[in-house]
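2.7 Reproducibility. Because tokenized structures are sensitive to small changes in the input, we list the exact sequence used for GDP-mannose 4,6-dehydratase, including any N-terminal residues retained from the expression construct. No trimming or masking was applied before prediction.
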Amino acid sequence: MALRYFSSPMPTALITGITGQDGSYLTEQLLDQGYTVHGLVRRTSNTVRSRLDPLFHNKDVYNKNLFLHYADLDDTTTIRRILVKTQPDELYHLAGQSHVGASFDIPESTCQFTAMGTLKILEILRDLEKQPRFLHISSSEIFGRPDESPQNEHTPMRPVTPYGVAKTFATQMVQLYRESFGLFACNAICYNHESPRRGESFVTRKITKAAAEISLGLSDEIVLGSLDGRRDWGSAPEYTTAMHLMLQQDAPDDYVLATGQTHSVEEFLDAAFRSVGLDYQDHLQQNPKYMRPAEVTRLVGDPTHAKKQLGWTPATTALDLAKQMTAADVESLKRLAASS
Ligand code: GDR
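Resulting structure tokens (single pass, no recycling of outputs):
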């Protein structure tokens, strides 16, 4: 059956990384605003896309306003074909290898997808007749060990992890294509952003899932690496709202998306466990396996530019997130138990 992509007068967006935490929130927000949304998905034998399930199973949405296409990030001919076929007004590039710790074990593929994957998309855009507005999700990891704190859009990049180096390359390429080739291309320089949809290998979700399991008697311990790291943690759906606002401006620019506050891993752990009446010290094990050869330090963002230009204000704090995410994990484990 031929799908009709051009039935709506509303804008069309294409999202790489649509099945991820940010991709799923952004998709919901754009569909709510009447967009037609296309997403790129990797071809794997596992077709579980739990974050998109409610949309996927909604007959009024899937293949009407939401379409998925198979394409790997290094498959430039397919990406080009999808761009020509779907003619998006906005392209949100969220895909990539997003695990900082893992990037020490797989530096080459991290650079292949995160750095070269972004360059390949920019190269395709350069040749297109209709160039969509382009957003690249950059990261606070580009600052690494910064000389100044908090960091803003002008802070020099000094990455200390393979992931940070790959993101730095991609961020600077976005700037270069904006300045040299006139693309409407923006970097969303995102500090950590979390939600109940966060992948379970990231520390916040690992903590909240463990707190929920222990509180329900399903487990007794949590194994972590260093508790000393400090992060500027905000709420993922608030950050995807800002990403959309970035592409509605008159001119392309880079924006730091952050709360301006930091907490240690230990503080987040304490808040999550306390929220279900537990003391984390009764359950904590530490394992060097989860410690990194190099850690970023003093990472805290200054979101003044986003506040002034986009009118965006982050509302949710890290300690709110610890409670909300733990409560969501408790609920989902209870639902699972009731259904089995
Ligand atoms: P980060 O997030 O590396 O900041 O990258 P992560 O949640 O992985 O780590 C945060 C801090 O927790 C410490 N830590 C552990 N981390 C993990 N994953 N697992 C553990 O068991 C553990 N124990 C302690 C880490 O050492 C670190 O200090 C995230 C990602 O989303 C990136 O893609 C994004 O660009 C940045 O945030 C901004």
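The chain has two domains: 12-194+236-244, 203-230+262-301+308-339.
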